[in-house]
């Protein structure tokens, strides 16, 4: 505990800091005269890098440049001691610089100068120092001589070829090449690691080579050194076993890595295994920073550039192949060398002023701060009563001349250091005027005027303005003096003309300057040119009479169509008008008169229209068609008042269409000059109106006449009218306060419009205070539209109000608005999360809420995260999809119901509390299991074969059984028009998925209803109906032909594409029969949607709800073959009284065919093989009751009907011929064995392989040569394995993969020395192996000959 004395000292120190008034540093202008006379301590402007590596072949240059007044002198320290350069002739220093040059032209070793250097730059006002520069010479050592033994490895095994480059400075760049200088191809299997080693995840026979060479490239010397090449020999095997992944780098299951902030993070995982494992990366407890992360080297390397603290954590790399997977965890720690938070800057103070230097740095570990003065520790300097060191801050109070110095801040930790120089310069300078002397300023009357008087001095001078050398100073009223010395006159009048003097004073003296102001009358065109219509050959004249200040020279120019007008013998310009004699057609256009003085200008325009004869003159236009009216003329202002003025004008010609409206527009020259805006509109019979105006706006008006044809051109602008200013009358709207960070509140509002400012210098006064504390209002005045209150507590209410203020005073205050500071992450989780009343799809959840104070914001909801962990049905895979549900509880019962769960499943869930910005920590995780429910409908249910005698049904189990499936229930009955036959019921075990019904006669139709059963009961019913032969459509042509129906208007329906597999069936032509044949490998895709009923035509339609309320067609199913398709759909129309239309569109040419049908299913025949169709089904009385479009494609090589090949005569005959041939061969074999004949090479079959004979020079084995030892065996050796064969896992003998036995007639035969043919013999295969391999050579007649002969 602190003693009372310590608390008293802290209290006094805090009080002093509060009472001490800090003065900001003086900004010295860049005026050359001031800079020349300004005394300044040294500043380092250029220096070499901290870690300085030099090329040994070049001279060494260590840079150190500094500026200051007087010019600094330089000295160096080497390894902390004074470096006397005079004693070393190789070392010199550049003139007026501290840069060292070390020259080796006369000999010497650069290594002798490897050391730590530091530069000191000094003048009369202090000493600045450089960083400590560590000089090192680049090195490129040779590769050590070594004898590399050949690397022998089995095929499929992993191997690492080490590189181990010589340690260079800087480290070399490594790469692998072969003897012809081509890079070693790298891929997922073969790649180079970060350490330069070459990794083979698994070796292949093609990897055998004699020239794997690692190369090291040294950057400074630009040399490449090559390591002795590796020879890689591969022992090949017939069957490479598949292996589980294992890590080559790193070798253990976990490792750690430290990286510095701002550097790049490189993580590597290289794995071995067969097949080659793939690498995936994860971050434990979060996502990878995908904006920063890059995957390289075939995903084996993870690179994060510019690492920050949030990149720390556990990174997991997973290597997996089809055999298995393995993980490696890399714990990444992010440390940080020191980095600046607040770097000290130069401080220029006047005598007696105060200031401070702040040096704030951060790092990991936290850096230590050390202050130095003029390059020496501040503790060793002379005591200075005006200076106080408080942690990372140096405070200066009432500084005096002569205390200038350069201070250094050193922030360091174990990973590096930062060094910053900042001088404190005590500047004393008498006032100086920086602007031109005796300047003349000319302004236009009633305009805002600024008189500049730039000055400088130290201490900061006090500046005052005087007019004509009299008075006590100008400030207030229509005068305003800015801190930079500028005098503003809000509206210059004639009496403001005169000589203005600005005087700057400080304790060292004074200085003054004068400005002469002349106020001039504005330049105005009082008689403007008017629109003319002149007959060709006549004279046209445009007036332009000007009123201007006679003391200013004036220039009058004329433009035609915005281009300078060429004046000559015909066009004449006079003082007050332009004359155009003998008007021609090319003279037509817009003429503009522009009047300019040196300080303002005015312009006016008019259009000249050239007529062919006098029948078209204005006096004879009454018979012309109506046109746009002419512009109003002679605008005049009268009856001025504070907020209104009367505007009068003379109407222009209405051009045979009465004027119905006048639009008055205004332009003001203060906020948006040049922009015309609508003010008011008036009836067409008025030409004198009162305009209601806003305060403090310099108006100019124009009028536009409008008739039935359209608007006229705008009139010429009126003279300007300035309304007087007043305080703001509008309260800024949209006031609100909300935090953008946890410790601030951003107050925003809508700015006033320009016409609502009511005066100059509009600003906003914003007040705020804590709502729940009795504290005074805090306020700020700003011109912005927002203000951020910093250092607030998290999510606390504030009272806010606002007021607009201008130069005329304060406007009304707004009502108090409640705002809130920023939110933070909730700090506590909901507790005791549990469930009750678990049903098959719902569950009640309960929890204990968090303390409201831990929400750290406005409660948004309690958010429940839940996911389906697994199904309780064995071997049913589920997709783990995270779902959320929010609960906003308004009463004291913190409970809710979670719905839409899948029955008979295991779920997990957790809960967080959320405010409007963040979510809090998770609660306990709860696991529960839903009860068994009714199963979903079977995945499919279809009639896969239909002939005259039977109907064969097939189905599949439901995608979601929702429980233990105990069987299926099939209900069916015959259908005959509106009559239904007796219902029959069949029950099946869960493993039964097909059923065949024998038909009593050809015309009998059935309707089937299939449902799966669990212990809870029967689930959703899947209904199908067998087709009637009358509904099957056939046509012998290539394009389907249907019964003709009136075409229906198209309905915009989203289409669904159905692609059927193109499996090739037996190419046997089978006639088309009227059955629903089972199609080999046909694919059926069903799409269930609600049909769109919005027609695309605009004709009047029948009300669908009245015609067929609630009716729809869905689940269109197409079972496509090569030239026909079975179509089925579902609907809720009456079975006995509904007809449908099938609309089929050929995609290639857009041909549309329709057919009227009854109930599904329907067989559509005569389709084009390999063609794409679009199909829909709609109700024949209302085409907008329609299914979705379904796109399907017929197969390319299907036969029209599947026929059992075993029943075909040609097949039976072929089998008999093969059986006879086999019998003959058996007889031949028996005769030959009775003679005892043998091949002379059979004794060699059990000889061991000679490794010398088998191995090639490249290290691989030639199994083609090994086949020479495979010979036929006698019956007592039939079950012995062949030389080179492998034994399967179950003990059965398998033949080698490349044995010629497997190829029948293929492959070249091998001959022995005596010319006998070998290599084509086979051994018996086990019964199971023969039966399990349909492509076995036992069925090949050719192989049978070789095996039995």
Defining key terms:
six-stranded mixed sheet; disordered C terminus; disordered N terminus; 8 helices; 100 strands; mainly beta
What does this structure look like?
This protein is mostly beta strands. It has eight helices and 100 strands. Strands 2, 5, 6, 9, 10 and 11 form a six-stranded mixed β-sheet that branches. A hairpin with a 5-residue loop joins strand 43 and strand 44 (487-489). Mean pLDDT is 80; it is low at 1-23, 614-624, 1029-1107, 1197-1203 and 1237-1349. Residues 1-25 form the signal peptide. This is Neural cell adhesion molecule L1. Belongs to the immunoglobulin superfamily. L1/neurofascin/NgCAM family. Pfam families: Bravo_FIGEY, fn3, I-set, Ig_3.
How much helix is in the residues? under 10%
How many beta-strand runs? 100
Strand content is: 35-45%
Distance between the termini: 108 Å
What's the total helix number?
Answer: 8
User: Averaged pLDDT, please?
Assistant: 80
Query: Gyration radius, to the nearest Å?
Result: 50 Å
**What structural class should be given to the helix and strand makeup?**
mainly beta
Could you name the ranges where pLDDT drops below 50 across 5 or more consecutive residues?
Answer: 1-23, 614-624, 1029-1107, 1197-1203, 1237-1349
Main pleated sheet:
6 strands, mixed
**Which term fits the overall shape?**
extended
GO molecular function: cell-cell adhesion mediator activity
Membrane topology: Single-pass type I membrane protein
Organism: Chanos chanos
Family: Belongs to the immunoglobulin superfamily. L1/neurofascin/NgCAM family.
């Amino acid at each position: 505990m602190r003693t009372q004395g310590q608390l008293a000292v802290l209290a006094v120190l805090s009080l002093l800091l509060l009472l001490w008034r800090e003065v900001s540093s003086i900004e010295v202008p860049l005026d050359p005269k001031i800079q020349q006379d300004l005394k300044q301590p040294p500043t380092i402007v250029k220096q070499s890098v901290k870690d300085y590596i030099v090329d040994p072949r070049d001279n060494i240059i260590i840079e150190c440049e500094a500026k200051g007044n007087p010019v600094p002198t330089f000295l160096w320290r080497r390894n902390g001691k004074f470096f006397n350069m005079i004693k070393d002739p190789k070392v010199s220093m550049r003139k007026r610089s501290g840069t060292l040059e070390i020259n080796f032209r006369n000999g010497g070793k650069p290594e002798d100068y490897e050391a730590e250097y530091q530069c000191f730059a000094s003048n009369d006002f202090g000493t600045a120092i450089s960083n400590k520069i560590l000089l090192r010479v680049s090195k490129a050592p040779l590769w050590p001589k070594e004898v590399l033994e050949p690397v022998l490895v089995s095929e499929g095994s992993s191997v690492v070829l080490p590189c181990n480059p010589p340690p260079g400075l800087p480290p070399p760049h490594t790469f692998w090449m072969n003897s012809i200088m081509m890079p070693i191809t790298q891929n997922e299997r073969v790649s180079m690691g970060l350490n330069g080693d070459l990794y083979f995840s698994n070796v292949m026979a093609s990897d055998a080579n004699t020239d794997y060479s690692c190369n090291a490239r040294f950057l400074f010397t630009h040399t490449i050194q090559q390591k002795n090449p590796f020879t890689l020999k591969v022992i090949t095997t017939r069957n490479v076993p598949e292996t589980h992944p294992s890590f080559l780098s790193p070798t253990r299951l976990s490792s750690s890595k430290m990286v510095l902030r701002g550097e790049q993070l490189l993580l590597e995982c290289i794995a071995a295994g067969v097949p080659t494992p793939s690498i995936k990366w994860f971050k434990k407890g979060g996502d990878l920073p995908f904006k920063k992360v890059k995957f390289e080297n075939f995903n084996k390397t993870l690179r994060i550039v510019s690492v920050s603290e949030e990149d720390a954590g556990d990174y997991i790399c997973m290597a997996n192949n089809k055999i298995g997977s393995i993980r490696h965890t890399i714990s990444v720690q992010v440390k940080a060398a020191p980095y600046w938070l607040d770097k000290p800057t130069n401080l220029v103070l006047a005598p007696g002023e105060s200031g401070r230097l702040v040096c704030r740095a951060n790092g990991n570990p936290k850096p230590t701060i050390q202050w130095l003065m003029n390059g020496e520790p501040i503790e060793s300097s002379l005591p200075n009563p005006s200076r106080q060191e408080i942690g990372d801050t140096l405070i200066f109070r009432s500084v005096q001349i002569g205390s200038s110095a350069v201070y250094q801040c050193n922030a360091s930790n174990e990973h590096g250091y930062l060094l910053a120089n900042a001088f404190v310069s005590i500047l004393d300078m008498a006032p100086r005027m920086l602007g031109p002397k005796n300047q003349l300023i000319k302004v236009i009357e009633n305009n805002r005027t600024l008189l500049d008087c730039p000055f400088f001095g130290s201490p900061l001078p006090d500046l005052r303005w005087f007019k004509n050398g009299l008075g006590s100073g100008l400030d207030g009223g229509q005068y305003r003096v800015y801190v930079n010395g500028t005098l503003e006159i809000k509206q210059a009048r004639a009496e403001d003309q005169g000589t203005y003097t600005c005087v700057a004073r400080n304790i060292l003296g004074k200085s003054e300057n004068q400005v002469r102001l002349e106020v001039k009358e504005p330049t105005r065109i009082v008689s403007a040119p008017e629109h003319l219509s002149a007959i060709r050959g006549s004279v046209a004249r445009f007036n332009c009479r000007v009123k201007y200040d006679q003391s200013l020279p004036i220039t009058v120019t004329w433009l035609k169509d915005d281009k300078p007008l060429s004046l000559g013998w015909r066009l004449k310009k006079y003082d007050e008008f332009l004359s155009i004699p003998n008007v021609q057609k090319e003279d037509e256009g817009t003429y503009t008169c522009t009047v300019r003085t040196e300080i303002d200008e005015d312009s006016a325009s008019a259009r000249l229209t050239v007529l062919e004869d006098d029948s078209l003159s204005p006096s004879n236009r009454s018979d012309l068609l109506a046109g746009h009216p002419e512009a109003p003329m002679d605008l005049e202002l009268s009856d001025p008042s504070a907020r209104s003025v009367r505007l009068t004008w003379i109407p222009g010609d209405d051009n045979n269409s009465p004027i119905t409206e006048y639009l008055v527009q205004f332009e003001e020259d203060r906020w948006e000059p040049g922009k015309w805006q609508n003010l008011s509109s008036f009836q067409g019979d008025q030409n004198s109106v009162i305009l209601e105006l806003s305060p403090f706006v310099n108006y100019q008006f124009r009028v536009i006449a409008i008739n039935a044809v359209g608007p006229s051109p705008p009139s010429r602008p009126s003279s300007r009218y300035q309304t007087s200013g007043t305080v703001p009358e509008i309260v800024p709207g949209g006031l609100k306060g909300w935090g953008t960070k946890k410790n601030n509140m951003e107050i925003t509002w809508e700015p006033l419009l320009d016409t609502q400012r009511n005066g100059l210098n509009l600003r906003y006064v914003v007040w705020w205070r804590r709502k729940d504390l009795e504290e005074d209002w805090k306020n700020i005045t700003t011109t912005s539209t927002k203000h951020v209150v910093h250092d607030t507590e998290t999510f606390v209410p504030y009272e806010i109000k606002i007021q607009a203020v201008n130069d005329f005073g304060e406007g009304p205050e707004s009502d108090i608005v409640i705002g809130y500071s920023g939110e933070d992450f909730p700090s506590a989780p909901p507790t005791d999360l549990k469930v009750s009343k678990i049903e098959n799809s719902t569950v009640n959840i309960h929890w204990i809420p968090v303390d409201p104070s831990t929400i750290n914001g406005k409660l948004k909801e309690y958010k429940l995260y839940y996911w389906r962990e697994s199904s309780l049905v064995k071997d049913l895979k589920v997709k783990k999809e995270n779902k959320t549900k929010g609960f906003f509880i308004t009463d004291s019962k913190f409970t809710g119901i979670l719905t839409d769960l899948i029955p008979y499943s295991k779920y997990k869930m957790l809960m967080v509390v959320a405010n409007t910005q963040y979510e809090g920590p998770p609660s306990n995780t709860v696991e529960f299991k839903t009860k068994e429910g009714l199963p979903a409908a079977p995945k499919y249910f279809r009639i896969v074969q239909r002939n005259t005698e039977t109907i064969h049904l097939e189905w599949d189990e439901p995608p979601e059984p929702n429980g233990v499936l105990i069987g299926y229930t099939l209900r069916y009955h015959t259908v005959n028009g509106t009559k239904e036959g007796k219902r029959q019921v069949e029950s099946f075990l869960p493993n039964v998925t097909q059923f065949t019904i024998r038909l009593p006669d050809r015309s009998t139709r059935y309707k089937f209803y299939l449902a799966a059963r669990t212990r809870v009961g029967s689930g959703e019913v899947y209904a199908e109906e067998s087709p009637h032969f009358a509904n099957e459509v056939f046509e012998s042509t290539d394009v389907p032909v249907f019964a003709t129906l009136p075409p229906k208007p198209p309905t915009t329906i989203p289409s669904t594409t159905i692609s059927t597999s193109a499996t090739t069936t037996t190419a046997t032509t089978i006639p088309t029969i009227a059955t629903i044949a089972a199609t080999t490998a046909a694919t059926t895709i069903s799409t269930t949607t609600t049909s769109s009923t919005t027609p695309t035509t605009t004709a009047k339609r029948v009300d669908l709800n009245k015609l067929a309320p609630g009716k729809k067609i869905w689940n269109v199913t197409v079972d496509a073959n090569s030239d026909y398709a079975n179509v089925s759909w579902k609907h809720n129309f009456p079975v006995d009284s509904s007809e449908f239309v099938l609309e089929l569109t050929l995609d290639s040419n857009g041909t549309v065919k329709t057919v009227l049908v009854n109930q599904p299913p329907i067989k559509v025949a005569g389709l084009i093989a390999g063609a794409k169709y679009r199909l829909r089904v709609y109700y024949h009385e209302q085409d907008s009751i329609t299914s979705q479009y379904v796109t399907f494609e017929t197969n390319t090589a299907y036969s029209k009907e599947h026929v059992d090949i075993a029943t075909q005569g040609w097949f039976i005959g072929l089998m008999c011929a093969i059986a006879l041939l086999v019998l003959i061969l058996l007889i031949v074999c028996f005769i030959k064995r009775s003679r005892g004949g043998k091949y002379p090479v059979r004794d060699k079959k059990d000889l061991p392989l000679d490794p010398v004979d088998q191995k090639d020079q490249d290290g691989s084995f030639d199994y083609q040569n090994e086949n020479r030892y495979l010979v036929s065996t006698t019956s007592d050796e039939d079950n012995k394995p062949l030389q080179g064969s492998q034994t399967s896992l179950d003990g059965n003998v398998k033949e080698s993969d490349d044995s010629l036995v497997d190829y029948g007639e293929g492959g070249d035969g091998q001959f022995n020395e005596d010319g006998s043919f070998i290599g084509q013999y086979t051994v018996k295969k086990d019964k199971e192996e023969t039966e399990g391999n349909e492509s076995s050579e036992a069925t090949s007649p050719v192989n049978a000959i070789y095996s039995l002969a």
